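Hi support team,

I'm opening this ticket because the web form for multi-chain structure prediction keeps timing out on my end. I have pasted the exact lines I submitted so you can reproduce it. The total is 794 residues across two entries, so I didn't expect it to be a heavy job. Is there a limit I'm missing, or should I split the entries? Thanks in advance, R.K.
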Amino acid sequence: MPVLSELSGKMPASPIRKLVPFADAAKKKGIKVYHLNIGQPDIPTPKNVTDKLKEIELDVLAYTKSQGYDRYREKLAEYYRKNHIIVDASDIIVTTGGSEALLFTIGSIANPGDEIIIPEPYYANYNSFATLYNVKVVPVRSKIEDNFALPPIEALEELITPRTKAFLYSNPANPTGYVYTEEEIRKLRDLALKHDIFIIADEVYREFIYGDTKHHSILHQPGMEEHGIIVDSVSKRYSMCGARIGAVVSKNKKLMASVLKFAQARLSPPALEQLLAEEALNTPATYFTEVISEYNRRRNTLIEGLEKIDGIKIGYPKGAFYLMAELPVDDADKFARWLLEEFNDNGETVMVAPASGFYADPEAGRKQVRIAYVLNVNDLKRSVEILQKAVETYNKK
Amino acid sequence: MPVLSELSGKMPASPIRKLVPFADAAKKKGIKVYHLNIGQPDIPTPKNVTDKLKEIELDVLAYTKSQGYDRYREKLAEYYRKNHIIVDASDIIVTTGGSEALLFTIGSIANPGDEIIIPEPYYANYNSFATLYNVKVVPVRSKIEDNFALPPIEALEELITPRTKAFLYSNPANPTGYVYTEEEIRKLRDLALKHDIFIIADEVYREFIYGDTKHHSILHQPGMEEHGIIVDSVSKRYSMCGARIGAVVSKNKKLMASVLKFAQARLSPPALEQLLAEEALNTPATYFTEVISEYNRRRNTLIEGLEKIDGIKIGYPKGAFYLMAELPVDDADKFARWLLEEFNDNGETVMVAPASGFYADPEAGRKQVRIAYVLNVNDLKRSVEILQKAVETYNKK
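Hello R.K., no limit was hit. The queue was backed up. Here is the completed structure from your submission:
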């Protein structure tokens, strides 16, 4: 057969999906698997959105504009302005999920061999989009002891080379749940302006903040008109992961003209789901109050349970719905597989995401796992109990 | 501001969209514009599909598998088998439109600097996806005098170099409406096996064939298990362009493993629209009979009208819903713009797609336009009448 591309060899396989066959095998044996591994919320999509589905009247399911429906972009701009992100529709291009927003953004700013600095641990798919363009991810280590706060800005600045094109981070962060402070965002702005690099802020978890913490967007900062880019998505916000509606948001007109060319190449984002995303903007505030307080309950339940595990280290999250924990095991990859292949407690086990895939150097995350708290409180309690027993059993082997 | 990527400069702007501002300006002046320029059919989406929308019950609009819903892939495999394309679900990865199918396929097979041979004129967005990976499009000229048949296979073979990775064509073809004969497909197969290159067949117009012509798929050919790739989409088939549901279809397991990695990076294709695409597979055969006979009427109406234009050359289409015509004008780009900016007949004008954007060398298509017959017969009659008057007026300037 013809040889495939080098890229086809280099594209990373999903680090989490490697375990799926073992989970499937466990289920076949009749074992119940609690999924702490995935970012698919169990929270219902807002009812106004699912109701909207019944009201859509169409004769022809036609292409939309490549940048998305005008009306949706207008309403989306309003949403941002309510969040003190002062943009209008022309600063927004609707994409097929946050993934495509990253694909278009990285392609617009970085040449092969260029570098993007990303605090690690980071969302594994950032690797995929960088790899696609042969762009180098330069990690800067954040630590579980600091709850994965921004590393000292000096550590970051040391990594900047003539090939550095951007700093990319998620806020609230996947996989750590860290929420960047206003001071950290200001430092990032100053760094961007000093070195003339882009700041790409993945803000898809914007609403998921617990306690007194506040969300600070990169576009809250003055002076970021040319350097600031938000990558966004409705997936988590409205529990609409399957809609595949995202956006690139920036005041940089040249950048947006480039993103539009990428968007035109794929013609149009999904039409129906843009209508649903538009409706989602009408979701009552009470929906979020309830969802956030539910996640907060889960967060606290999870932490309370995990703290009972001897020798565990926890990165205490302030946002999103993930938590990173360092387990007292030799190898979290082995442990996660063992949980599915060999362990069960009364016919039940848990699936966690080994963190090695969230680090440029897998060794750095060797003992860490990401836990998504997307299960209800009772299931979470039971999951942590299983995890605790599993750690004990594993270490007695 | 930070410098954008070289790619951002090279990504081609849509050749057709350049004219959109002029069309908008004409409309603002109250002029009616008949759109012969776009591939958005006016044909209604099948009623079973739009009805299905009302029946979808969901609590959480969740991610689907990266390769698409299993049930959809199973039913899609059945559809292919009915079309004598013998595949099963594991040979199919659902993509976000045919565009993404191309993105994943080219990324899987070609390195920067590699070459893909494409008969020209070709679908302009092929350039975009090749450009994204810095892959070179090597055109092989097909001629209006031959109705854009496959050029002699020797001409094609001469272009093969050690960097050639694939031959890519659309069948039925956009923008020419040409339908490849079984003999031509066989020659392509022999060429692929002899030189160990992929054949990528964009078969999104599979059903749109007029008269006695038959569609021959690349996967009808024996021996193409490792070398044949179909790029497909529901957009035109069911008039669901806005659904953004496509597919890569191939028996090559290594290729499909690579495509899956690209698919995992973007998590999931749109969920709801996969449900609609699945329902679309239940569309009664009568829908197609009616649609095809409607397009056939339009095709004949269009040709009859165009033949009245002195000095015109027509590439007679056998499929899809496009036709390429060479007009007796100095420059089709100028002419198309003039139609919108300066001409009207009783307050009406037409918009056509200049063909320069469909050729690697724009000069080759300097006098040609693509006409999409996606208007009803009466509008088409009137459009051609306007076009005839316009050509006369333009040449008297």
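A quick check on our side: The mean pLDDT of chain B is 96. Let us know if the file doesn't open in your viewer.
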